[in-house]
Amino acid sequence: MTPTDAELEILQLLWSSGPSSVRAINDELNKRREVGYTTTLKIMQIMNDKGLVKRDTNNRSHVYEPIIMEGNTKSTLLNTFMHNTFNGSLKDMVIHALGDGTSSKEELEEIKQLIDSMQKRDLK
Question: What is the pLDDT of residues 20-64, one digit of tens each?
């Protein structure tokens, strides 16, 4: 199941901070933009119904935890984006992403190192 943009934003918070209450997630969302508590609650309830998160009801404030794995979700979303936007071409996607000139020297160096290590691995 592919999460919506709002669900993905909540999942990212859960992945980074671990199991959290609706209040904690809503507080984090409000650091970015104003989001009503009931809106956050409703989205998280829907996410629970969809099987994206699980809810622990043992305490007064329910705690939510992601069920879907961060890496798998990001890979699925990226592959879908690549196929829908760049006709499945990884090369075109990377060229477009790097061609806008917003990458720092440090990021480019990390990318070079990753490519080097991938090439070395493939030569073995």
Answer: 999 999 999 999 999 999 999 999 999 999 999 999 988 888 999
Distance CA 112, CA 4 (A): 33
Rounded to two decimals, the pTM is 0.79
Closest CA to 57 of 66, 65, 67: 65
Q: Give a three-class secondary structure readout of the chain.
A: CCCCHHHHHHHHHHHHHCCEEHHHHHHHHHCCCCCCHHHHHHHHHHHHHHCCEEEECCCCCCEEEECCCHHHHHHHHHHHHHHHHHCCCHHHHHHHHHCCCCCCHHHHHHHHHHHHHHHHHHHC
98 pLDDT band (50/70/90 cuts)? Answer: confident
